[in-house]
Design brief:
This protein is an alpha+beta fold. It has 4 helices and 8 strands. It has helices at about 10-20, 65-75, 130-140, 140-160; strands at about 20-35, 35-45, 50, 55, 80, 90-95, 100-115, 125-130. Helix 3 (about 130-140) packs antiparallel against helix 4.
């Protein structure tokens, strides 16, 4: 466990400095074109309640992008078209009962085509559609802010073509 009073950045530096192994995870960035423009679907983490995107470890027999799609279904109750290449990644610390693990999460854009009323983790999380400005405020990782801005720029370019 982290020393008392050590913040998340101190723990990140400690992990990087010690060369601990990094667990690979895969996440989806669910988005849609709504009446008010481009929207992103955020969910709450189970432990802290902060706003995040669906993510998880690689699932057997699934590609990385299919794992991201499955996480979007299980954690956020959405299905759609997931790109096969990640748009970016970020690192974080996953806190588990047996300690902390450094994770690196590759993020895959996902155009949402179906929003379900019932899904596996419905009772464990909240979900919320937000515009770009709100997403940049609610997301705690700068890398995720960069990814949503890139999706927004890309989508704006498609609309002009």
């Amino acid at each position: 466990m982290a020393p008392s009073g050590e913040g998340i950045f101190g723990r990140l530096l400690r992990f990087v400095g010690l060369g601990d192994s990094v667990e690979q995870q895969f996440g989806a960035v669910p988005y849609r074109r709504g009446a008010g423009g481009l929207e992103f679907l955020l969910i709450t983490s189970r432990r802290t309640g902060r706003w995040i995107f669906p993510k998880g470890g690689k699932m057997p027999f699934l590609s990385a992008s299919d794992t991201a799609a499955e996480e979007a279904y299980e954690e956020a109750g959405v299905r759609g078209s997931v790109e096969t290449r990640p748009l970016g990644s970020y690192r974080d610390i996953k806190i588990r009962e047996d300690g902390e693990t450094m994770i690196e999460v590759d993020m895959y854009p996902m155009m949402v085509e179906e929003e379900l009323l019932d899904w596996p983790e419905k009772d464990q999380r909240r979900r919320r559609w937000v515009g770009l400005d709100e997403a940049t405020i609610l997301l705690s990782h700068p890398e995720l802010v960069t990814i949503v801005k890139e999706i927004a720029a890309r989508e704006a370019g498609e609309g002009d073509a």
